[in-house]
């Protein structure tokens, strides 16, 4: 109801629309509408309710400031009647003490109004910041408890936009809009009540222009609404494009696609210019219309009110009160219309935040799940099948065994399912059927955290954080001493290159790990894994070409790391896994062959084919 009334008064404010309620990062269509408004509001309230006392104070201040905003003009009218209209002639000056007290009282009212407004603003900002602080914390913590499949389904930019844009949207709305709406409603109701009480006829005359305002505004907003939405969509599209092209800089440069990317940007930029031009030009007419109609109302009240005053129906002071109130009336109406929309988009934002908070966290370990203290490293896959999507067959009927300390190599063409098999072993996903066992114990009966703490990963593109080399190695075991960190680096063959750097172990690495070479990154990852001292290892062999010296160093480091641990090596160059205890050959999600290098060559099957074709390519 309220929305229907105030919607036409909405001044589309460009600065409010920027990035808010849009899925800026992903560039998707903005979702301005909340799906479950009352539920979301109740949930926001549950956050606010934690500061009930302060909130009550804020509401009290809002009521006071709204009341005082009514009292000011009212007193002014009374003052005019009392001290000016009653003057007998131009020579009679209102210098008696009553007039002075009146002025002091009036000033006190306006000062108090400013003070109460300031107080409710500051207190509300405090409550709002505390609320979004808690939301942000909850969301970030929750994101780290969500299972890997959640991330597989969503774009990173989209998740980030919830943590930043959407939360910011809730924050700014709680800061101002929520209270402004309350204050506007109070002021409107109060103004109307006092006006009706003073003179129903003059009230009617004052509001004669309101239907014209509603019609005029509706006419304009009907035209600008779709234009603003269009601009919002274009903005989202542009944001997504910027994010994509900035993160893909290397590829763009490598393929010399700069010109094409700039052209793409230009097209999107033009679309924003066009929709922005029309939206803002048409909506720019709104303040003029409001002003014109306000003046019309002013003239009607002054004219008819003047006649009524001459006839003695009302006093001059009453006309002054009406004129002030009439001017005061359109402001909260405008505020309401603007804030209402901001509020709606914030509710939609909050809903998107709650949607993530409602995502199921990684399934709880079963009650009886155990924490492993020691692992021998015997792994068995028994007829394991798995698919990322229902009905698929990413892995089918996989069975093999790995004895403690064995090196198992996984080979097969791209997309064969090697990484998926490792994901199942680390319980990032659970098999659809079949069983995986560690030391004879079903994986599902082992606590995930405990299982993962027994494993270390040395991947192709090892993830390095922004921090020193020392901190990055220590990530393997946070309580390791500096000596232990250096010992691990020595075993990994990383010590010498670290010492050649200016700051040695204190060299700061950049957030994306750039600044050191691929081979050096891998040596650091090996050091990290050595420090973690896991019972099981997962190694993703580097595909990128690394110089022979570094490669020998890496191989040495890996040999030391693998010693006595069950290791799974995803191999791309088959000559590096000749010493593997077992080679698993995967193709299209099925285990085609398994055995040692020699056994598989003798079989003359798929592995032998792969091996010989690689030999041939190397010889060319
Ligand atoms: N998160 C995912 N959601 C849906 N399908 C996926 C997902 N990850 C991988 N796949 C699909 O599962 C199949 C196996 O992928 P996997 O990454 O295990 O192959 P791989 O043998 O490790 O390949 P590569 O050698 O290229 O790394 C592929 O067809 C791949 O497209």
From TrEMBL:
One of its GO terms (molecular function) is ATP binding. Residues 379-613 form the ABC transporter domain. Residues 13-33 are annotated as: Disordered. The chain crosses the membrane at residues 55-79, 99-127, 178-198, 204-221, 296-322. Gene3D superfamilies: ABC transporter type 1, transmembrane domain, P-loop containing nucleotide triphosphate hydrolases. Its main location: membrane. Keywords: ATP-binding, Membrane, Nucleotide-binding, Transmembrane, Transmembrane helix. It is a multi-pass membrane protein. The keyword Disulfide bond does not apply. It is found in: Cell membrane. Coiled coil: none annotated. Residues 56-345 form the ABC transmembrane type-1 domain. PANTHER family: ATP-BINDING CASSETTE SUB-FAMILY B MEMBER 10, MITOCHONDRIAL, ATP-DEPENDENT PERMEASE MDL1, MITOCHONDRIAL. This is ATP-binding cassette subfamily B protein. It comes from Paenibacillus lactis.
């Amino acid at each position: 109801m309220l929305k229907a009334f105030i919607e036409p008064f909405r001044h589309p404010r460009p600065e409010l629309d920027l990035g808010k309620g849009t899925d800026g990062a992903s560039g998707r269509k903005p979702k301005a509408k909340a799906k479950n408004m009352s539920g979301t509001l109740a949930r926001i309230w549950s956050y606010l309710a934690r500061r009930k006392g302060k909130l009550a104070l804020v509401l009290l201040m809002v009521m006071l400031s709204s009341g005082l905003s009514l009292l000011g003009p009212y007193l002014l009218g009374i003052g005019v009647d009392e001290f000016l209209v009653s003057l007998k002639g131009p020579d009679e000056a209102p210098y008696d003490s009553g007039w002075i007290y009146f002025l002091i009282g009036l000033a006190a009212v306006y000062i108090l109004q400013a003070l109460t407004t300031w107080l409710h603003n500051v207190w509300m900002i405090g409550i709002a910041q505390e609320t979004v602080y808690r939301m942000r914390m909850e969301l970030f913590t929750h994101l780290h408890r969500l299972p890997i499949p959640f991330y597989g389904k969503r774009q990173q930019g989209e998740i980030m936009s919830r943590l930043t844009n959407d939360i910011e949207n809730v924050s700014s709305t709680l800061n101002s809009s929520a209270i402004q709406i309350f204050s506007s409603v109070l002021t409107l109701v109060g103004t109307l009540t006092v006006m009706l009480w003073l003179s129903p006829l003059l009230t009617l005359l004052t509001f004669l222009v309101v239907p014209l305002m509603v019609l005029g505004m509706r006419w304009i907003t009907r035209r600008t609404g779709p234009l603003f939405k269009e601009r919002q969509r274009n903005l989202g599209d542009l944001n997504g494009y910027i994010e994509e092209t900035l993160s893909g800089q290397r590829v763009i440069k490598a393929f010399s696609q700069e010109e094409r990317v700039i052209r793409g940007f230009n097209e999107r930029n033009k679309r924003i210019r066009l929709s922005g031009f029309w939206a803002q030009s048409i909506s720019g007419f709104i303040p003029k219309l409001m002003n014109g109609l306000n003046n019309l109302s002013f003239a009607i009240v002054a004219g008819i009110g003047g006649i009524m005053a001459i006839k003695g129906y009302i006093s001059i002071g009453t006309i002054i009160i009406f004129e002030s109130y009439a001017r005061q009336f359109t402001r909260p109406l405008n505020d309401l219309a603007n804030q209402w929309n901001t509020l709606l988009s914030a509710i939609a934002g909050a809903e998107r935040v709650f949607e993530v908070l409602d995502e199921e966290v990684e399934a709880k370990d079963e009650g009886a799940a155990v924490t492993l203290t020691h692992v021998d490293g015997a792994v068995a896959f028994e007829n394991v099948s798995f698919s990322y999507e229902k009905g698929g067959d990413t892995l089918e009927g996989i069975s093999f065994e790995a004895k403690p300390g064995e090196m198992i190599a996984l080979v097969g063409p791209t997309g064969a399912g090697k990484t998926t098999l490792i994901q199942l072993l680390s319980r990032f996903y659970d098999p659809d059927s079949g069983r995986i066992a560690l030391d004879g114990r079903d994986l599902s009966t082992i606590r995930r955290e405990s299982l993962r703490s027994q494993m270390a990963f040395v991947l192709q593109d090892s993830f390095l954080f922004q921090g020193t080399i020392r901190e990055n190695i220590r990530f393997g075991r946070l309580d390791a001493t500096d000596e232990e960190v250096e010992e691990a680096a020595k075993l990994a063959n990383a010590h010498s290159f670290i010492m050649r750097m200016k700051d040695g172990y204190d060299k700061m690495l950049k957030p994306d790990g750039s600044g050191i070479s691929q081979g050096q990154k891998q040596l650091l990852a090996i050091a990290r894994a050595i420090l973690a001292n896991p019972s099981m290892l997962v190694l993703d062999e580097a595909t990128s070409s690394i110089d022979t010296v570094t490669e020998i160093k890496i191989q040495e480091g890996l040999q030391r790391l693998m010693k006595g641990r069950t290791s799974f090596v995803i191999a791309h160059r088959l000559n590096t896994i000749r010493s593997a205890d077992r080679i698993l050959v995967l193709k299209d999600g099925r285990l085609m062959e398994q055995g040692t290098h020699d056994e598989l060559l003798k079989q003359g099957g798929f592995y032998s084919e792969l091996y010989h074709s690689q030999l041939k390519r190397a010889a060319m």
